[in-house]
Specification:
By secondary structure, the chain is mainly α. The chain folds into two domains: 96 residues, Leucine-rich Repeat Variant, CATH 1.25.10; 207 residues. 56% of the residues lie in helices and 6% in strands. It contains 14 helices and six strands. The radius of gyration is 25 Å and the shape is elongated.
């Protein structure tokens, strides 16, 4: 049966109106307006198809649901255009996040935000709230473990760290991935938590994010070839030991001493490597890991978008970090 279509002039008028001109009824109904544009992706007129294509790209994320559905259309033209638009919109959303980080001063960067942004490479429509909610739940579990009537930050360092490690290691079963180490999933906070295994830097920064919610002075350490966490003894509560507590999350969340690090880590320098890892370097290190592992898996499209975003964050400040 022939498909009933609006005249080309009418459709172009609708598209221009949605673009910001006169206001037809659909302009006040975003979902209906988006659907009308999607239906125009296989219009007989190239001008109409092209205008709809450009407008949907401009609309961006709100159009994704309708475009994903159109990506399964029986119409080859609509299907191909929709699939391409989904990819371009997703890449645009991701790129925008890394552009913002690239423009920030170092002191304003948040590693936790970057953990979510890096996860978008694998799960482009992951909402940040999904990550923050889980981290909030982990922090609540630590509070319960330590005692609801206690303030984590006022406890002896060894006690608060024991509670943090117990929850992450036993309740959430987070561990180092020693069997599929070179899997891009290991650099996504969302997938690491779901799979319960990941790289040293992801396990460590999850712990840092949870500790921050508890007001515990835990920081990430960019140790060569490794990544660990440290309770900063100098920030311990009054009357408590001022010694650092260094934890290796990847190897069973074990405590490790400086002497052991000197003998087991080539190039280890306590003065340098026991300082908190700068946020930008931490973010770039996570991105580099995912890019390298995507390359191992021969996922070239993933490699390309990560490289592009890497440069957005690094700028000209870290040309040798790769």
């Amino acid at each position: 049966m022939p498909v009933c279509r609006l005249p080309e002039v009418a459709i172009l008028g609708l598209i221009m109106a949605l673009w910001g001109g006169a206001t037809p009824s659909l302009a006040g109904e975003p979902e209906a307006g988006i659907q009308a544009l999607v239906e125009s992706l296989d219009d007989e007129s190239f001008a109409v198809r092209d205008a709809a294509d450009r407008k949907l790209l401009e609309i961006g994320k709100p159009a994704l649901a309708a475009l994903r559905k159109a990506g399964r259309s029986d119409s080859p033209e609509k299907r191909v255009r929709a699939i391409k638009l989904v990819r371009r919109i997703r890449e645009g959303v991701i790129r925008a996040e890394f552009e913002k980080m690239g423009e920030m001063n170092d002191e304003d960067l948040e590693v936790e935000h970057a953990l979510w942004a890096v996860s978008l490479f694998l799960d482009p429509e992951l909402e940040k709230k999904e990550v923050t909610t889980t981290l909030d739940e982990m922090a609540d579990a630590v509070r319960e473990k330590l005692g609801k009537d206690k303030v984590p930050g006022s406890l002896p360092p060894a006690e608060s760290m024991a509670g943090l490690i117990s929850v992450l290691k036993e309740q959430y079963a987070l561990a180092g991935d020693t069997t599929t180490y070179q899997d891009p999933d290991n650099s996504s906070v969302h997938r690491v938590i779901a799979r319960r295994k990941g790289l040293p830097i992801l396990l460590s920064e999850i712990a840092v994010a949870v500790a921050r919610r508890l007001e515990l002075p835990v920081v990430g350490l960019g140790i060569p070839g490794r990544y660990m966490i440290k309770y900063e003894g100098r920030r311990a509560p009054a009357g408590q030991p001022r010694e650092d507590i260094i934890i290796n999350p990847f190897e069973g969340w074990q405590e490790i001493g400086v002497r052991d690090l000197v003998f087991s880590v080539p190039g280890f320098d306590a003065d340098e490597h026991l300082q908190q890892s700068p946020a930008r370097l931490t973010i770039l290190r996570i991105m580099r890991n995912m890019e390298n592992h995507a390359g191992v898996k021969e996922k070239q499209e993933l490699v390309s978008i990560i490289r592009e975003c890497y440069q957005l964050v690094a700028g000209g400040r870290f040309p040798l970090f790769r």
